[in-house]
Design brief:
Family: Belongs to the MsrP family.
Helix content: 10-25%
CATH architecture: Alpha-Beta Complex
CATH superfamily: Oxidoreductase, molybdopterin-binding domain
Pfam families: Oxidored_molyb
Radius of gyration: 20 Å
Bound molecules: ligand MTE, molybdenum atom
Largest sheet: 8 strands, mixed
Number of strands: 13
Keywords: Metal-binding, Molybdenum, Oxidoreductase, Signal
Catalytic activity: L-methionyl-[protein] + a quinone + H2O = L-methionyl-(S)-S-oxide-[protein] + a quinol; L-methionyl-[protein] + a quinone + H2O = L-methionyl-(R)-S-oxide-[protein] + a quinol
Distance between the termini: 34 Å
Strand content: 15-25%
Subunit structure: Heterodimer of a catalytic subunit (MsrP) and a heme-binding subunit (MsrQ).
Length: 321
């Protein structure tokens, strides 16, 4: 497959003013490093745009890229950003694109708490400043039997968790999405018990394939795709890959997630992609790749069995789905 190219502004077209501005942004990004812990109340207008500027700066250079979809064609950006599940905006596939602008992403902070040595609330620019970004091309398989191939930009979740020092009791990691019913029309309806909540076992969270994504196609994450920061767990059904994360909590006991609470028979905790374990209402043997006609065979662990099957040795995946 031919490598695609991101659109880049040639150096010759960058005006001196833009160069000046970008150097200023760099300086601001550098200063932000020193102030790791920010009380939510202090995130005022002075910091507005700070994480976006920092991220755009980081995206303007070529990032290391890993192709982990066996050379399958990338799903066009248009399809990735116009066919979405993001129930905070409604249950229609086009709702996230239509109402996505209502998601307020700036400022954004991330709370990390529970069984960690270093808990706190951190401005997103400080979270980003400490991470090496890379591109990862992954398959994405929704439990509804459709799929995409997406070039994410992000960093391993493990890199963030290690910085906060999980304790020996940290067996599970809980993730929570933004709760803002004033701006998110879907949250005024009882689709699930808001906010959206997901969780992983600690060894799933620490697995090198598990990503925190902040962009796709070499650009800042579009709102409908889970801006500014979302989880990507490529061997699990898409509902595990929670969007627009505001809180991460490490705990001992396995928590109840949003989809399990709503329908435990249909949505299990592991939710590993498994063509041999059908959803009660439909087969999981095949899938529709968005932008293609016909159907593809669904792969065990979504094609990542070599990397993750050992995590589930001895677990009956028909019973524990
Ligand atoms: N907060 C939140 N995260 C979410 C969802 C959601 O409705 N809200 N939908 C999930 C589902 S079912 C899928 S398939 C993926 C869809 O990601 P995409 O729209 O970027 O393809 O996001 C997951 N993360
Ligand atoms: Mo999904």
């Amino acid at each position: 497959m031919a490598r695609y190219r991101y659109p880049r502004i040639p150096e010759s077209e960058v005006t001196p003013r833009e160069l000046f501005e970008s150097r200023r942004r760099l300086l601001r990004g550098g200063l932000a490093l020193g102030a790791a812990v920010v009380a939510p109340g202090l995130l005022g207008s002075r910091e507005a745009q700070a994480w976006q500027d920092l991220l755009e700066e980081r995206l303007s250079v070529d990032l290391p890229s890993r192709e982990l979809a066996d050379g399958e064609s990338l799903t066009p950006r248009r399809d990735i950003t116009t066919y979405n599940n993001f129930y905070e905006f409604g249950t229609g596939k086009r709702d996230p694109e239509t109402y996505g602008h209502r998601l307020v992403t700036d400022p954004w902070s991330l709370t990390i708490e529970g069984e960690v040595d270093k808990a706190g609330t951190f401005a997103l620019e400080d979270v980003l400043a400490g991470q090496r970004l890379e591109e990862r091309i992954y398959r994405h398989r929704c439990v509804e039997a459709w799929s995409k191939v997406i070039p994410w930009v992000g960093f391993p979740l493990a890199d963030l968790l290690k910085r906060h020092g999980p304790t020996s009791r940290a067996n599970h990691v809980i993730f929570e999405s933004i709760h803002d019913p004033d701006n998110l029309p879907g949250q005024r309806r009882s689709i699930i018990d808001w906010p959206y909540r997901e969780a992983l076992r600690i060894y799933e969270a620490m697995h090198p394939l598990t990503l925190l994504a902040v962009g796709l196609y070499g650009e800042v994450m579009p709102n409908q795709s889970g801006a500014p920061i979302r989880l990507v767990v490529p061997w699990k059904y898409g509902f595990k890959s929670i969007k627009s994360i505001v809180r991460i909590e490490l705990v001992e006991e396995r928590p109840i997630t949003s989809w399990q609470a709503r329908n435990p028979d249909e949505y299990g905790f592991y939710a590993n992609v498994n063509p041999g374990a059908d959803h009660p209402r439909w087969s999981q043997a095949r899938e529709r790749r968005i932008g293609e006609s016909g159907r593809r065979e669904t792969l065990m662990f979504n094609g990542y069995a070599d990397e993750v099957a050992h995590l589930y040795a001895g677990i009956d995946l028909q019973q524990h789905y």
